[in-house]
Amino acid sequence: MHHGQIKATPVVGLVGNPNSGKSSLFNILTGLRQRIGNFPGVTVEKKAGMLRLPGLPTVELIDFPGAYSCYPTSLDERLVVQELTNPAGDLFPDAIVYVADITKLDKHLLLFTQLRDLDLPMILVLNMADLMESDGLTVDIPRLSKELGVPVLPVSSRDHRGITELKAAITDLLRAPDAFRPRQPFYEPGASARDVLGELRRELPARNDYHALLLTHHAPWLKHIPERTRHKVQTARVRHGFHSLRAQVEETMDRYNSFEPIVKSTVRHAGDTNSYSDRIDNIVTHPIFGPIIFVVLMLLLFQALFAWASVPMDLIELTFGTLGETIRTTLSEGWFTDMLVDGIIAGLGGVLVFVPQIAILFFFIAILEEVGYLARAAYMFDSLMQRFGLNGRSVVALISGHACAIPAIMSTRTIANWKERLLTILVTPLTSCSARIPVYVILISFAVPQVTYLDGLIGLQGLAFAGLYFLGIASAMLSALAFKLLLHTPDRSFLMLELPDYRTPVWRNVTTTVWQKSKTFVLEAGKIILLISIVLWAASTYGPARDMAAAEAQVEETAVAQELTEAEAADLLASERLEASYAGHLGKFIEPVIRPLGYDWKIGIALLTSFAAREVFVGTMATIYSVGSSDDEFRIRERMAEERNPVTGEPTYNRATAWSLLIFYVFAMMCMSTLAVTKRETNSWKWPAIQFTFMTVIAYVGAMVVYQLLA
Amino acid sequence: MPFTLPAAASLFKPGQSGTIERFTNEHLAGKLLDIGVRPGSRLRVVRKSPFGGSWYVKIDRQCLALRKKELACIMVK
């Protein structure tokens, strides 16, 4: 409530249309002191930050999701209405900083007038004021401020003009909110709404008529409306023939009519400002060149992703390897040291090794987003995606999925239609993420001979590699199609996508995105990977006491008989202990199930451990084949090539088994972190369970068919 | 007296333009109004998307991507 004293932590909400540059402003005001979380009970990302103003307690600044009006169509927009119509809620702002794009005032003032009528103390910020000179745009600020009844501040998140003034204005606003309250509403509910309001006005927890009107519209889904009131609203709406959609259209038209003259009399445009963007779009969204440019861009992106990430990834692996070795040599031997080195440090390294790729991917995606290209990609591919039950916006997730499914799934929040969003979440993990790369690299050498054509320009192994990627994306699309036919939802699907003018990226926003996404990955996924890696370590270290003792005794015997060196004996011991461990027992237990796929119990262990995260495959192979703790892929490959079937004497890793394993890894849902993110994004265990099942079934059947055909 | 009947904007060919008169679908009208498409706005169909199904449209000075269904409910003359 904004009466009387200032609260201990005043809340200021940053509200505005999508593409108004709200987040840029948020980044400038709060820097990196941001907390990213979810709004209570929903999976809408909540960005909050601290703002220090002279003479005031620390202010909490909340960056609300972009919304067009108080009549929401997406989850993000709903949240804005939910929080701004609930004065009793924790997130109800004491003041609002409303951000509008100075070049689009004729559109961005719609939500402004609605919030103004909710009796919220506000400031209007005109963002992108740097365009005032370059675009020949003039705005009569004092007059606009007088007509709208709020302070109006031109601000630019590019050259930082007006930021000091904005902070001063927020201070004034919090000190004396009543001075900023409207004298008269922009809109009075029309005849059709008056009857229903007359009946409900007293029933509803509303501050004024417009607040009551919004509650009447949205009572069916607003969380803070008690069931009893909801029921009353429903009957009153029916009794008075209140038609929500019609009332909405009527109100919106009325509002445009009330503020359009104000904009016309205060804003002057000089000439057609968009010609620059238009010329770019003639080529970039061209029906033929457009998709070609898109494909070339993506190829460049992946080239950069793999080229730039390899050095930092090697460094991280080296650092954690060395760290583990150092700890092992300094600390005394024992289970604690083992857990620290093989469980925690190995797990931590396994998480951090993905950070370079995630950071680079988001670096590019943030640039494409900032420039305005992602909206164009969504436009170009929308109809293609629609045929598979997806949305143009799904393109972004499907591309990002090739680096890591976790951030990709998190990027689906902009898809308004629940079914399209769900389908995108379900199929994205089928795209070949970077964790599959080390597994592909090792196995392809067994599956495909090293033959090259055209003087080494095209290699058969390289083709197979590309083929696996294609298989991933094709299966993602086909699975989406299958789900499209299976699931039915009454939700309406929209494209209605704004194609913002091309602009050079604000680098501060790019760096903030990279930082935030990497941090989220390390914290969210890291917890799970670390936990699983400790469990795996325990399962592969401990076993039934009798079996373990027997294994040790046997190794000792063999070592003496074959005169093994100390290192060889240690490697053999590790291998035998693994066989005797709980993991080994489990591997043997599932052997009958995976036999038709051409796998033995050792591969079974690798598969089981891979269900935590695919990249664990390589490490497990190293342990099983007693290569020791080395992660050297070449040594593991050599050792695998020597492996023979004890019965037939044939190599274990023949063409059929290798292909079968490759197919299994393309399809199988082997990433706990992705499942955890799916659970969080869908708010239920049902969808991650379905995702796990359908992917693993395809993997099993696919691998079996391939093995049986080739063997 | 010159008189043109309003027609659905989905019948327009790239390059054609007109003034929006009304909407024929309430659900879509609410959302279109929200993003700033309203009667009296100038609409021009710029181009068709590479795989068909959606259009690059310019409304007043704003560029939008609209699906066929969305364009079909906009009556233009």
Give a structural overview.
The complex is a heterodimer of chains A (711) and B (77). By secondary structure, chain A is of the alpha/beta class. Among the domains of chain A are: 11-180, P-loop containing nucleotide triphosphate hydrolases (Rossmann fold); 191-268, no CATH class; 527-710, no CATH class. Helices cover 61% and strands 7% of the residues of chain A. Chain A has a 7-stranded mixed β-sheet, sandwiched between helices. In chain A, strands 7-9 form a two-stranded antiparallel ribbon. In chain A, a hairpin with a 6-residue loop joins strand 2 (34-38) and strand 3 (45-51). In chain A, helix 14 (355-371) runs antiparallel to helix 21. With 77 residues, chain B is of the alpha+beta class. Chain B has a single domain, classed as Ferrous iron transport protein A (FeoA) (SH3 type barrels, Roll). Chain B has helices spanning 26-34, 68-72, and strands at 7-8, 17-23, 42-48, 54-59, 62-67, 74-76. In chain B, a hairpin with a 2-residue loop joins strand 4 (54-59) and strand 5. The chains are: A alpha/beta (711), B alpha+beta (77). The interface between A and B is large, with 47 and 32 residues. Strand 12 of chain A pairs antiparallel with strand 5 of chain B.
